[in-house]
């Protein structure tokens, strides 16, 4: 078979607005190739990039180690680090560390290099570890998150002295805009507060959201009737400073159990709930058993008449309104180990 190479460049003969409409439907890798064809296409591809399809990466992790930041990205099953060269290359040696300058979490030079993340990629998961955040870094968070971000983890971070009320308010606005299905927020400083409106909005907009919030030295959040009506919608709700009204809890628990979805709730309760309250509220499709063998009272509520085993484990019988201890997120079936030294109430839904 003979191959014929044509010199005719049909793309370059199209009108600019037509080319821009085409280019914005391409992804970043496609535009890289188009840009090599001619100077005209190179210029138009640069104009089209802000609206072009971003490459889908699995996750971006930013970790602060003392006075340095490390950027790690997973894309196409490979790990990449933000290096000191002009290309984002896979590293075999220790990942590059980028210094933090006085007054800014990210220096301008690092910020310029890190722009490659939000200019070319959209991330399913973003993780921040031990980062001391200022207003400039909050702006960077806005740029690296998008509607495709399904999980945002802000773990052991804090707002530093260079953060302002406006910057912290902007951070919460970003969360409300992105609304990742999984949201973890562990802060070392009580610079922001989470209210019921935020939790209710989450429950109404996201199907069975995963929420873990622990802000050191934050005040107790008293859940009212409006929040209790939305409690059953949470897959995971781990919030030590949330105080729930025990009088309204059983109905929410049974509604959640009948959803037959695994998950876990951990929060404080206004008072302990005894076995009679559980048994008197049971429907024909539920049964309650009690286990005191571990030294901590554990109630188990089972859904009757299903092919699979669906149940809730309720660990309580400790002084109410104390902070719940840390345990694993999920507990499935009877393989779960006994949970000791927990205060308040913790409910685990398994199958």
Provide a descriptive summary of the structure in words.
This protein is elongated. 30% of the residues are buried. The chain is α/β, with parallel strands linked by helices. Mean pLDDT is 80; it is low at 85-93 and 317-345. The longest helix is centred in the middle third of the chain and has 14 residues, at 165-178. Among the domains are: 11-51; 54-192, Nucleotidyltransferase, domain 5, CATH 3.30.420. It has a 16-stranded mixed β-sheet that branches. It has 10 helices and 16 strands.
Compact overview of the structure:
With 351 residues, the chain is α/β, with parallel strands linked by helices. It has helices at residues 16-23, 28-34, 39-48, 108-120, 135-144, 165-178, 196-205, 225-228, 249-257, 275-281, and strands at 55-65, 68-75, 78-81, 98-99, 121-129, 132-133, 151-159, 182-187, 210-215, 221-222, 236-244, 263-269, 286-291, 298-303, 311-315, 345-350. The chain is 26% helix and 28% strand.
């Amino acid at each position: 078979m003979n191959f014929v190479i044509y010199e005719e460049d049909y793309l370059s003969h199209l009108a600019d607005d037509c080319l821009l409409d085409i280019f914005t439907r391409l992804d970043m890798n496609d535009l890289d190739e188009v840009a090599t064809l001619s100077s005209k296409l190179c210029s138009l591809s640069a104009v089209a990039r802000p609206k072009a399809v971003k490459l889908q990466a699995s996750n971006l992790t930013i970790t602060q180690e003392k006075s340095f930041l490390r950027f790690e990205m997973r894309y196409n099953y490979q790990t990449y680090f933000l290096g000191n060269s002009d290309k984002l290359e896979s590293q075999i040696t220790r990942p590059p560390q980028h210094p933090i300058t006085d007054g800014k979490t990210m220096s301008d030079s690092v910020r310029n290099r890190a722009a490659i993340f939000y200019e070319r990629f959209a991330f399913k998961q973003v993780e921040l570890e031990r980062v001391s955040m200022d207003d400039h870094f909050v702006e960077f968070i806005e740029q690296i998150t998008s509607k495709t971000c399904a999980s945002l983890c802000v773990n052991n971070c804090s707002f530093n002295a260079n953060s302002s009320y406006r910057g912290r308010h902007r951070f919460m606005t970003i969360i409300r805009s992105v609304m990742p299905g999984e949201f973890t927020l562990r802060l070392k400083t009580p610079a922001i507060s989470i209210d019921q409106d935020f939790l209710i909005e989450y429950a109404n907009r996201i199907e069975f959201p995963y929420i873990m919030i622990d802000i050191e030295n934050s005040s107790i959040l008293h859940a009212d009737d409006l929040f209790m009506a939305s409690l059953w919608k949470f897959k995971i709700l781990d919030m030590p400073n949330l105080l729930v009204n025990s009088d309204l809890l059983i109905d929410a628990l049974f509604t959640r159990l009948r959803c037959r979805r695994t998950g876990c709730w951990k929060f404080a309760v206004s008072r302990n709930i005894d076995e009679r309250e559980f048994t008197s509220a049971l429907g024909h499709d539920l049964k309650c058993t009690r286990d005191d063998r571990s030294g901590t009272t554990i109630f188990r509520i089972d859904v009757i008449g299903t092919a699979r085993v669906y149940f809730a484990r309720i660990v309580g019988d400790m002084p109410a309104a104390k902070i719940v201890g840390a345990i694993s997120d999920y507990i499935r079936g009877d393989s779960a180990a006994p949970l000791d030294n927990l205060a308040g109430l913790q409910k685990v839904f398994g199958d």
